Amino acid sequence: MAIAKAEDYEIYSLSFQYGQRHSCEIQAAGKVAEKMGVKKHLVICLDFSGIGGSALTADIDVPKGREINMSEQNIPVTYVPARNTIFLSYALSWAEVLEADSIFIGVNAVDYSGYPDCRPEFITAFEQMANLATKAGVEGKFQIKIKTPLIKLTKAEIILKGITLGVDYGITHSCYDPAPGGAACGQCDSCLLRKKGFQKAGVPDPVLYI
Question: Which CATH number does the domain housing residue 60 bear?
Fold first, then answer.
């Protein structure tokens, strides 16, 4: 969002309440959107819990304290089936109504996540589909571009980039399994990657951990 703002885009931000374990990330997204001065922040309500298949939406334990292997080929249990495909489809629908030709998504393919819908080839395929599936694309009114400014950056590089753009990391949220009060667990994959990124960047992480 900060990168889009620095590039003089008018920002419409989109978040999803999709049956995940907590609402902390929605609250954090609202704070970030407000601080960034977005034109509108829309929260879409979905229910992935009936589908299941993920530790984020079903009664499956979130892995804690594991050694994250950057070359690991197995897709982690925190992967939510087809989540980014669905999220981007909603973003595409709103973009067409707004006549917005750019959709920004913060996927990253450098530091380990193991998610298939964070890969460059997925983004390329979705962009091609988007321009085949929309009235705007078929009529040649405008071409949709899926922008992924973080996709080739390490977590440390992302953190430092955000700092140069004035991002307040104290209001962000990364944890997969926070405490009831919202404190990050510090042991899930997302927390471990976040902490490692801040350490490598040489910057204190302002988020509260258990």
Answer: 3.40.50.620
Contact 88, 126 (CB under 8 A): yes
Max Cα distance, the chain (Å): 53
List, for residues 117-166, the tens digit of each pLDDT value: 999 999 999 999 999 999 999 999 999 999 999 999 999 999 999 999 99
Say if 139 falls within a structural domain.
Answer: yes
Rounded to the nearest 10 degrees, how much is the dihedral formed by the CA atoms of 162, 115, 191, 160?
Answer: -20
Q: What is the mean pLDDT of the chain?
A: 92
Q: How many domains does the chain have?
A: 1
Residue (of 75, 79, 44, 73) closest to 58 by Cα position:
79
In a domain, 48, yes or no: yes
Closest CA to 173 of 47, 17, 4, 23: 23
Cβ atoms 56, 20 nearer than 8 A: yes
Full residue range of the structural domain in which residue 78 is found: 2-153
Q: How confident is the model at residue 65 (pLDDT cuts 50, 70, 90)?
A: confident
Considering only CA atoms, give the Rg of the chain: 17
The torsion angles phi and psi of 78, rounded to 5 degrees, stand at -80, -5
> Which structure tokens are listed for 134?
């929309």
